[in-house]
């Protein structure tokens, strides 16, 4: 992989990317509030499970398939995948998150030369979701799809680690141990995601949907809903 491609992926995975990922806990705050992830070990297990049971089966396959579609200029396929992501958000909170991050990444793309004006116009014509917007940004790097997914998953892991530090709460060393556990599992999650087809891609996670609905009306919250 070219140095320029690697650095662009590192940029996309950085928590400093101004798309607001740091402001969401993806139900972890509700899990902490209901004593399901109230310690370091519980939060670590929770996030590793979330990586394999949701990210690897849903967002990561959508990103992989959208990267191929962007590179092939397959516009119907891009619209189909974006619609699938929207349809599978099981709460208003989860849908609002993917829409807000998708729109923010679209605005970021407008200020860079990685995507063409036609691609940006196509993305803007939809309700851009974060996985599909990320796929456009990653497709322009010319990096292999697997490396693009590793970057997407690592960016998610860093945000979730920071959410655990704030919500449980935990110290920085505990956060690094959680991130270590997640990075050890990410390659396996990515390899599984690459094997997923349209027929096996799924977003069935009822407990997350329940917790997300509870988080929307939770009395005291650190994270957006």
From TrEMBL:
InterPro entries: UreF (IPR002639), UreF_sf (IPR038277). Keywords: Chaperone, Cytoplasm, Nickel insertion. It is found in: Cytoplasm. Pfam families: UreF (PF01730). HAMAP family: UreF. Required for maturation of urease via the functional incorporation of the urease nickel metallocenter. Belongs to the UreF family. UreD, UreF and UreG form a complex that acts as a GTP-hydrolysis-dependent molecular chaperone, activating the urease apoprotein by helping to assemble the nickel containing metallocenter of UreC. The UreE protein probably delivers the nickel. This is Urease accessory protein UreF. The lineage of its organism: Bacteria, Pseudomonadati, Pseudomonadota, Betaproteobacteria, Burkholderiales.
